[in-house]
Amino acid sequence: MLPLTNVPQGTTQTIKWAFGLPEIMEKLEELKIRQGSKILVIQKDKDYMIIGNNGRRIVIENKIAQRIQV
């Protein structure tokens, strides 16, 4: 298992688990980013990454992405 920030750009990953503050976890759930979800790592930057999920592109801060394990 790796944090989402450590996977290569352009790969599709399955989320194993995630943790964080309740309000952040609620937002991830609203975006359908949860255990078992498949996400595409579209772009990585030093402060954020862009991921794809269910036909949407989502910008996520690396501090949050580090708490998502794939």
Automatic annotation (TrEMBL):
Superkingdom, taxonomy of origin: Bacteria
Gene3D superfamilies cross-referenced by the UniProt entry: 2.30.30.90
Stored InterPro entries: Fe-transptr_FeoA-like, FeoA_core_dom, Transcriptional_repressor_C
Location of the Ferrous iron transporter FeoA-like domain: 3-70
Keywords: Iron
Tagged with keyword 4Fe-4S: no
Protein name from the UniProt record: Ferrous iron transport protein A
Species this chain originates from: Candidatus Anaerostipes excrementavium
